[in-house]
Every structure is written in structure tokens, then in C-alpha cells.
Design brief:
With about 210 residues, the chain is α/β, with parallel strands linked by helices. Helices cover about 35% and strands about 25% of the residues. It has 7 helices and 7 strands; from the N terminus they run βαβαβαβαβαβααβ. The structure holds uridine-5'-diphosphate (UDP) and magnesium ion (MG).
């Protein structure tokens, strides 16, 4: 692998951006390849944009896409993937709930030849009863009504190859997309890694009920 892209969607995360950047930089420095981090500002109103803009000045490997308003997490990830240049693209959250150290394991799998790496949550201390119920129910219903099978508990944390990204860029252009579902059903060599989601580093969840 010559280059790794990390896509990070950001919606009002002013409290965690700096810490996330430092943690991610620590990991990227240890990797044996070039990297770029694409932050997608999803219409933040709390100063996240200004913080991210500063990172682009300080670090030439940081890129920034900024939406005029909030379009949602999926749209942000798609924009990041669209502009990515890496051989492997990792999508992850900005709040450090997706452990950055897992990037080493992801890169290893990628180098073994996997094109899609889904990340399965085993536990999330922050997730309440209602959210767990809705999430479990979602996958059950989805699997019931769909011809395709969706792995349960996969998260917005995933990695894809440049080839998979190209197919997403060219063939999957519906307005509403379910990325973690699409990538599972593209018939590329796939594996998954289980992980325990950490606690949010600061701030609160940006998803309303
Ligand atoms: N996010 C986003 N747009 C939104 C909502 C969330 O880009 O409309 C980002 C958010 O900043 C974070 C990630 O998506 O980096 C996951 O959001 P959050 O942590 O609030 O979700 P939860 O972990 O509670 O499911
Ligand atoms: Mg979170």
C-alpha cells in the first residue's frame, strides 16, 4: 500500500477535534506509508470548521470538505470517499469511539488482500437500551425484507480498497445510501474485525431519536 486515506465526518465536534487529530497522527506516523486525512465538515455551527481549517494549514496531509448545511453522516462519508486518493480508505468517527489503534489491524488485513473490512461492535457502554433495540430491530427487519444479507452490528467504521471506492463513486449514486450495507454486498473479498466501541471523548451524540 502506497497511501492510506482516512475519512472523518464532523458535525459540531469542536471539543474533540484536536485530541482526535493528535491520536490519529500518532498512528499514521507509525505506518509505513503515505497518508491523507479528509475531514468532512457536515454543516457544523460550533467552530469545528475553523479548527479543521487550521489543521489544513498546519498539516499538508489534512484535507477539508465543508458542507453548507448539515446533510448527515452518510452524505459526509460519501463526499470523503469521492475525494479520496488512497489505496485503502478508512471511514471513522471523530469522537474517538472508533479506536484509532485498530488502524494497524485494518492495514494488515488490507495487505492480506481484503477489499472490504467491516468493523463489528461487540459492546458499546454509551449505547442506551432504546438505541440498542432500534439498531437490532433495524438489522432484523432489513434481513427479513431484503434478498441480500446484512451482517449485524457492523458500524460506520469500515475500510475499503480503492477499487471498492471506485465502484461506490461510479455505480452507487442514489441520493439515500446505506454504505455499510452496500459494501457488504459488492462481492469483493471481505473480512470483519470485532471491536469494543470506546466512550465518546467529549460532547454528546449528534443523532437525535
Ligand atoms: N455526524 C455527522 N453528521 C451528522 C451526525 C453525526 O457528520 O449529522 C458525525 C459525528 O460528528 C461523528 C459521527 O458522525 O463524527 C458519529 O456521530 P455520533 O458520535 O454523534 O453518533 P453515535 O456514536 O452517537 O451513534
Ligand atoms: Mg459517537
Amino acid at each position: 500500500m502506497k497511501k492510506l486515506s482516512v475519512v472523518v465526518s464532523v458535525y459540531n465536534e469542536v471539543q474533540v477535534i484536536e485530541l482526535f487529530y493528535q491520536e490519529l497522527s500518532r498512528v499514521l506516523r507509525e505506518l509505513d506509508c503515505a497518508s491523507e486525512t479528509i475531514y468532512v465538515n457536515d454543516g457544523s455551527t460550533d467552530g469545528s470548521f475553523e479548527k479543521l481549517e487550521l489543521l489544513t494549514v498546519l498539516d499538508k496531509n489534512v484535507k477539508l470538505i465543508s458542507f453548507a448545511r448539515n446533510f448527515g453522516h452518510e452524505a459526509a462519508m460519501i463526499a470523503g470517499i469521492d475525494y479520496s486518493e488512497g489505496d485503502c480508505i478508512i471511514c471513522m468517527d471523530a469522537d474517538l469511539q472508533h479506536p484509532v489503534d485498530l488502524i494497524f489491524e485494518i492495514v494488515k488485513k488490507f495487505e492480506e488482500g481484503y477489499e472490504v473490512i467491516t468493523m463489528k461492535r461487540t459492546q458499546n457502554k454509551e449505547t442506551g437500551f432504546l438505541k440498542t433495540l432500534i439498531s437490532d430491530g433495524f438489522y432484523k427487519v432489513q434481513n427479513l425484507i431484503s434478498d441480500e444479507h446484512f451482517e449485524e452490528n457492523v458500524s460506520d467504521f469500515f475500510a475499503i480498497s480503492k477499487k471498492t471506492a471506485y465502484v461506490l463513486k461510479t455505480q452507487y449514486r442514489e441520493k439515500v445510501r446505506f454504505l455499510r450495507g452496500h459494501i457488504q454486498n459488492m462481492d469483493y473479498r471481505r473480512t470483519s474485525i470485532s471491536y469494543e466501541a470506546g466512550e465518546r471523548a467529549a460532547g454528546t451524540s449528534k443523532y437525535s431519536i
